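Mods, move this if it's the wrong board.
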Amino acid sequence: MERPLTRKELLARLIRQAEDPFCTTEELSDLRNIIFRSDSFSGMNHLYVVDLYLRKDFDLFPVRFEEAVHQCQLALKEGNRRGYFYLYRLYREKGQGPEARNNLRLSCDFQDPEGFLAMGRELLAGELFPKDEGKALSYLERAVQSGRKDGYDDLFFYHLRKGERKEAEEIARQAKEDHHFLPGVVE
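Not the wrong board. C-alpha cells:
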C-alpha cells in the first residue's frame, strides 16, 4: 500500500501538471482554480501564486499586484507566516517602504530565516531601515543559525570589505564546517 502524498507533494504534483506543455486549456483552468483558491495546502499554494508574480519571467498564470497581496493574506489566514516575508517583498518592489518594513519585522518576529537574511541585508544597505551594521550582523547570524547558509556569504564579504581578515577567515571556517562553500574561496 502506498503512503498518501503530503500537502507539499500534492501541490508540487499539481504545479508540474500545470507546467506540462501538453496540459489542455480546460485542465489548466481547473488547476488554476485549485492553486488560487484551495485552503488545503497550509497557504503554500497562495505563496506559489505570489512567487509567480515576483518571477516576472514566468507567466503560467498572470498575476496582478493586488492578487499577489490577496494571496499573501490568504496564506496568513491559513497560518502560513511566510506570507509576511512575501508581503515585504511585494511592498519593497513597489516602493511602499512603511508596509515593507512592517511586514519584514513581522517576518522576523515569526522567526522566518528568509526574514532574518533580508533584515540583515536591509540593515547593511541602509535604505529601508537606518543603517546599523551591528544589528545587521546579528540578523545574518540568526539567518545562518536558522538554516540560511547563504548568510555566511554576506558575513564573509562584510568582514572582507572592512579589512577584517581574521573574522572573514573564521566565517569561512565555520561555513566549511557547515558544508557551505563560499564563492571565490579556494583552499
